[in-house]
Amino acid sequence: MALPSNLLPDEASPEWMNKGDNAWQLTAATLVGLQSIPGLVILYGSMVKKKWAINSAFMALYAFAMVLVCWVAWGFRMSFGDKLVFFLGKPAVALDEKFLLGRAFLGYFPTATMVFFQSVFAAITLVLIAGALLGRMNFRAWILFVPLWFTLSYTIAAFSIWSPEGWLAKLGVIDFAGGFVIHLSSGVAGFTAAFWVGPRAEKDRHNFPPNNIILMLAGAGLLWMGWSGFNGGAPFAASTISALAVLNTHICTATSLLTWLLLDNFFFGKPSVLGAIQGMITGLVCITPAAGVVQCWAAIIMGIISGSVPWYTMMVLHNKVKLLKLVDDPMAIFHTHAIAGALGGILTGFFAVPKLCRLFYMVSDWEKYLGLAYGLEYGRTSAGFKQMGIQLAAMLFVIILNIVMTSIICWLIGLIVPLRLSDEELELGDDAVHGEQAFALCHDREKFVTSKHNKVYDTDDFSYVASKSIGDIQMV
Description:
Blueprint: H1 19-47, H2 53-80, E1 83-85, E2 88-89, H3 97-100, H4 111-130, H5 139-162, H6 167-171, H7 179-197, H8 202-206, H9 213-232, H10 240-268, H11 273-287, H12 296-315, H13 322-326, H14 333-351, H15 354-361, H16 372-377, H17 381-414, H18 423-428, H19 430-434, H20 445-449, E3 455-457, E4 464-466
Antiparallel strand pairs: 1-2, 3-4
Helix pairs in contact: 1-2, 1-4, 1-9, 2-4, 2-5, 4-7, 5-7, 5-17, 7-14, 7-17, 9-10, 9-11, 10-11, 10-12, 11-12, 11-14, 12-14, 14-17
């Protein structure tokens, strides 16, 4: 029987390409991109003090743009290309149509689709790191940090864990969609960078209220719903595993949010919106390495754990451990991403179902992927403990990699520009750093245009005005 004309292969739709998979992969990539732009841009911009709204949102916007350019220039092939060493691929561009229109190394879609899909994962990792540095990092230092950290840290973790040639991938580590590569990396790197950059101004550390909680919820909602693409796109196919991954993601997240809410209400007497958002994030992060390879009931258990353990580390241990109190992490990236990401990786090693791993990886040696719970059930205890060992080894590798590389990068940048803003800039915030103010109303127009810092734009026609002092400003 002949195929319908729209399904017949042609030069633009070769025989190896599955149009449904390609469409889903591009959609999933776009959903992940929307988590950063505008999701985290809105979340960061509304979750901080009013005077830091522009700077916080702009750090996320810049990181997203810079990573995409670095990705096609050298990053994709360092992360997924030909092996240079056991933990890194050979740097090369991903710009030629012959390369981009060929079949991707996995899946039934073009390499161009894979490049775009993986680029938004790389980008959101840097955007997450920014959350630990809000309210005090020199923007010029951030401009340097993003491409350096992306090149020297992210590509190594991605190749080691996700590339078929990576050493941890060959060992059999299970990281479904980035619990180690993205969340543990961003949590550890953000915490390490926050240590080197230093804290916010003292009064900001003690008084840093969100400027718009309703808008903050909108950003959080984009982040949550966008995770359908984050985890649902990991199988590189519109498959049963993709559907399971999406369902598990939302079940775990809802459970985690409710667990955090109950703990806040029980111990502090009031349910907190901020707490609910933190619980949402920890659930999303925890399920990421396991989304398509665990049972739905396991996702609920993971949600309970991800809503309680990070709550304890943030609300109790944070005030008792000297290092946690010393390092200024305004968005609690360490707790929501490092702790939750590590928990997810360990729990994946316990709950991973052999059959689901076979359907996800589709490799001949799929039997090496075995959660400890099923190893105990099937009489393969040693194989189950081996999987747990591999998960712990990957976790340790990512932690050490990010502590070392992030420290080196911060030291190098510190030789060129200050990592931290000056006291005057810390006092004034956006107006000093960018010459702009968030929420400038009509009656604030003259004040905005006559800002003495950096550059200004007329609020009516956006004409550019450059000045060095207040006396140089003229109304446009």
